Amino acid sequence: MSNRLKYLLDEERIPRHWYNIQADLPKALPPVLHPGTMQPVGPDDLAPLFPMALIEQEVSTEREIEIPEPVRDIYRLWRPAPLFRARRLEKALGTPAKIFYKYEGVSPAGSHKPNTAVAQAFYNREAGIKRLSTETGAGQWGSSLAFAGALFDIDVTVFQVRVSYDQKPYRRALMESYGARCIASPSNETASGRAVLERRADHPGSLGIAISEAVEIAAQREDTKYALGSVLNHVLLHQTVVGLEAIEQMRMADAWPDVIVGCTGGGSNFAGIAFPFIGESLRGGAKPRVVAVEPAACPSLTRGRYAYDFGDTAHLTPLTKMHTLGSTFTPPGFHAGGLRYHGMAPLVSHVKELGLIEAVAYHQTECFAAGVQFARTEGILPAPEANHAVKGAIEEALRCKREGRAETILFNLCGHGHFDMQAYSDYAAGKLSDQQYDESELAMALSGLPSVPEPA
Ligand SMILES: *Cc1c(COP(=O)(O)O)cnc(C)c1O
User: Fold this and answer.
1) From the centroid of its chain, how far is CA 212?
2) Which of 74, 221, 337, 370 is the most exposed place for a label (fewest CB within 10 A)?
3) How far is Cα 176 from Cα 183, in angstroms, rounded to an integer?
């Protein structure tokens, strides 16, 4: 039997709704606060940055939110994404576990990110927006939004974190091919960028800084809005197409995961695969273990504090309660650029606090080793970010082997690594090291967290 599940390219199988976990949470998400008043932000506070349809999704507690037909129509280009069983990896590991993976690398940009980029471009277009500004780490989000912008005739400006801009020139070429403008961040184009460059001219950049720059541009212009590729509730919502499809596909395979694994940068691909399953369990279904895998060099879930913090470095965003390393923390320039963010999605942080998920951290070289083992057995070369999920899944499979348990593992292979070959060359040449973050910088960033009064 083929190890690819028979899953017809039947458009009926593309979900008609996104799943909103806020409908099923036993405890509501803490409110987003205005940093000036410390009061919950209202829709008007967010209106300069986002179209109203997305703001409504941000606070919605409706379980199912309809996917607009024009968005579903574009999803048809690559969705439903395949679910595979990794039989050759299982064999190589000698594990009794069954390993399934959902492959999001089949999208035009090569990762899960277009799932939300297309939706965000659609709602902005509906609101008459002509230009979107955004940040990107490794470049996956920038290329996804550039792709979506091309489809909806929206100009896209991307601030790319300097270290990735230099490491991954082909990502920039892809963004430009889709018609976007790509600027290395910190840049001289914004006040927040200039402020950082004044302190350190060769600053490697960070997602927090790039967000400040993109937000600054969007706030200045009526026809420009901001788009974020992770962290926010509406982004996680759009990514639930991944898990909703996986639920159907697991049912077709007559299997159900005992363990779900995803990598976490801002939390969106992890939430995308996990939340629909967690929702099933909150409504009385089976309760899988759910494991978030993060980089040991930027460990917000395992080493951060659960506290109110800014989403960006220049403190232009509202305050959200999340696991954070502090908004001034600059993670080392390791290769999984998409995982270099100081915070974690408030929803992922919240479900962690509720005990619905676990988190582990691994170093980059052991993750690359896992990715190479995956490529040599299953054929797909994962994105460096996705290597963390592969590593997490392999560790679970080896645990099953030690314990003699035939569990079912499902992980999200959130993107391919075809634009990340420099990282693989460096790995093969033994040039990758396991960078440690600076403990004193972390302590300083944490001590700078804003003080927020506990609600009465
Ligand atoms: C952006 C990205 C990530 C990190 O973002 P999340 O919101 O945590 O998913 C991980 N993997 C890939 C392939 C990405 O493009």
Assistant:
1) 18
2) 221
3) 11
In the reported structure, the alpha carbon of residue 265 is separated from the centroid of ligand 1 by a whole-number distance in angstroms of: 6
Q: What is the pLDDT of residues 241-264, one digit of tens each?
A: 999 999 999 999 999 999 999 999
C-alpha span between 5 and 365 (Å, rounded): 31
Q: Cβ(23)–Cβ(63) under 8 Å?
A: yes
pLDDT in tens, 275-292: 999 999 999 999 999 999
Atom of ligand 1 nearest to the CA of 267: 8
Residue 416 beta carbon below 6 angstroms from any ligand 1 atom: no
Choose among 72, 60, 59, 98: nearest CA to 17: 72
SS3 of 276, please? Answer: helix
Q: What pLDDT, in 10s, does the model give residues 126-159?
A: 999 999 999 998 899 999 999 999 999 999 999 9
Handedness of CA 170, 181, 230, 208 (dihedral sign): positive
Q: Which atom of ligand 1 is nearest to the CA of 137?
A: 1
Q: How far is the CA of 51 from the centre of ligand 1 (A)?
A: 23
The residue to which tokens 């550039």 are assigned: 146
pLDDT of residue 228: 95
Pocket lining: 340 vs ligand 1, CB cutoff 6 Å: no
pLDDT value of residue 297: 93
Reading the block at residue 244, the tokens are 């909703």
35 preceded by cis ω (within 30°)?
Answer: no
Closest residue by Cα to residue 336 from 382, 372, 304 = 382
Establish whether residue 265 lines the binding site of ligand 1, counting it when its CB lies within 6 angstroms of any ligand atom: yes
Structure tokens, 395: 């560790």
Q: Is the CB of 108 under 6 A from ligand 1?
A: no
> What pTM did the predictor assign?
0.95
Q: Report the pLDDT value the prediction gives residue 9, as an integer from 0 to 100.
A: 53
Size of the chain in residues = 456
Instruction: Quote the DSSP letter at residue 362.
Output: E
Distance between CA atoms of residues 71 and 148, nearest Å:
10
CATH code matching the domain that covers 79-110+234-447, chosen among 3.40.50.1100, 2.60.410.10, 3.50.50.60, 3.30.2140.20: 3.40.50.1100
Map out the domains of the chain as residue ranges. Answer: 79-110+234-447
Please determine, for residue 455, whether its predicted confidence score (pLDDT) is greater than 90: no
**Residue minimizing CA distance to atom 3 of ligand 1:** 338
Tell me the residue type at 259: V
CB of 268 closer than 6 A to ligand 1? yes
In angstroms, the CA 304 to CA 83 distance is 33
Confidence of residue 313 (pLDDT cuts 50, 70, 90): confident
pLDDT confidence of residue 1: 41
